[in-house]
Amino acid sequence: LFAASAADPKEALAALRAEMLALNSLPPWTAEATQMVFGEGPVGAPLLFVGEQPGDEEDIAGRPFVGPAGRLFNKALEEAGIGRTETYVTNAVKHFKFKPTGRRRLHQSPDAGDIAYYRPFLKREIDLVGPQLVVTLGATALRAMTGKPLAINKTRGEVLPVADGPPIFPTVHPSYLLRLPDPDSKAREYERFVADLRRAHREVA
Ligand code: URA
Predict the structure, then answer these.
(1) Domain Uracil-DNA glycosylase-like, which positions (predicted)?
(2) Cα 66 to chain centroid, rounded
(3) Is 53 in the pocket of ligand 1 (CB under 6 A)?
(4) Which of 49, 84, 131, 138 has the greatest number of C-beta atoms within 10 Å?
């Protein structure tokens, strides 16, 4: 059904998205989400960013990184001198996982099973985009890419070779920056994040 379009990566990406939309094997919790949120950006983008999962605003918009974390991320990309045409952004988990509370939908971290479920799809998405470097934002993305629960602090800002694909460059998730309560450490951590993005950009220049 989808094989005919496999020659053109852009069409193959659209086919992968359609295949995921048609799945009837999704984890039960995904039924609570508004919609699946697929990756965005040009095929051949040298930098591919992997986030955790769509948040509340992404779930409604159907697009990755359009909420508060996304806005901070875009600001940091701009400061690092990274252009939109150079980046493809996606998530390890493609549905919003949350706990309904009175007024708000409370974000829930995906577990190892959720990450493992989406992993083969993420791998295929990355293969089709063909980036030079995969930047993982936060622990979930790093786990999705390595299959292991690695500490960000031990691997951050380093290029990790991968046997069967582009190397990985781990850094923190922008929502971690948003959660820091102290303004000084927030500013400092934000600068570190921008410095990481600059390093990643130099790797593909
Ligand atoms: N956080 C993520 O990890 N991904 C998004 O798309 C939005 C927020």
Answers:
(1) 38-198
(2) 12
(3) yes
(4) 49
